[in-house]
Design goal:
Blueprint lengths: L1 H10 L4 H26 L1 H6 L2 H43 L1 H48 L9 H20 L1 H25 L5 H23 L1 H18 L6
Length: 250
């Protein structure tokens, strides 16, 4: 138990200093690649895209990626390692209980994937229209009269709508995760009582399995709540590489 809790404690202590340095390095390299690419493709790309879209990628998207790498990435990695470690312990204690979690964990992964597919369009739309909004303000700073242009309210409503839709879909994972965790716990209790009555396991084995199941609860819930940051980061990466991979038409 001491080893288990020690490993879990270490997994939950992300190397923030190291990841912070890596995040700064990643954002620096991406920033240099973006400036070099824009310098090469020049006015052709700028004519095809509003300045707001470009500024949004140079500022917002880079900051999103930097924040994700600096803080969230190490936490997600730690939670995945902890889940794998606890699952191995369950299998070593009694493989029959491991089968229960072997069914529940893939179902949870499938639900995460479905939410990813459903919310991807809304996350991309939010970042795209956020760029349009920045373009509106950029024109307003250059020309005060453009602040009176018709259409800002619509842009603002669109940005808000995409944001709410994207978050609503990912927030569904919270109740789904709770339901799956409760289902796995109930199944373990029923199976454990049956095995106890049949004298196939000892009480200590059942208590150990229950404790391992409780250790799985927090990392699984944290992975579910990380959906927002993961989706936003992937959307930002996609927009960044749309510039880096841009090819001039011959």
């Amino acid at each position: 138990l001491i080893v288990l809790y020690s490993v879990g404690f270490l997994f939950q202590l992300p190397p923030k200093k190291t990841m912070g340095i890596i995040g700064e390095k990643v954002s620096y390299n991406l920033r240099m690649e973006l400036f070099d690419k824009i310098d090469v493709i020049g006015s052709e790309f700028i004519q095809e895209n509003s300045k707001g879209h470009i500024l949004s990628r140079l500022n917002n998207d880079l900051m999103v990626i930097k924040g994700f790498v600096s803080s969230r990435l190490s936490e997600i990695y730690a939670q995945i390692l902890l889940i794998a470690f606890v699952f191995v312990l369950i299998l070593m204690t009694d493989w029959r209980f491991g089968l229960i979690y072997l069914v529940i964990l893939p179902i949870h992964a499938i639900c995460l994937y479905i939410c990813h597919v459903k919310s991807k369009t809304n996350f991309n739309g939010h970042q795209k229209h956020l760029g349009r909004m920045m373009g509106y303000f950029e024109r307003g700073l250059a020309n005060r009269d453009s602040f009176h242009e018709i259409g800002f309210e619509k842009i603002n409503q669109t940005v808000t709508s995409y944001y709410v839709k994207s978050r609503n879909i990912t927030k569904v994972m919270g109740p789904i995760t709770t339901f799956l965790i409760n289902l796995s716990n109930i199944t373990v209790y029923i199976a454990g009582i049956y095995f106890l009555i049949a004298n196939e396991i000892h009480l200590g084995t059942l208590l150990a399995i229950i404790m391992y199941g409780q250790l799985l609860t927090n990392p699984i819930k944290k992975l579910s709540t990380s959906m927002d940051s993961i989706e936003t980061a992937f959307s930002s990466i996609k927009r960044i590489f749309a510039i880096i991979d841009y090819q001039k038409e011959k």
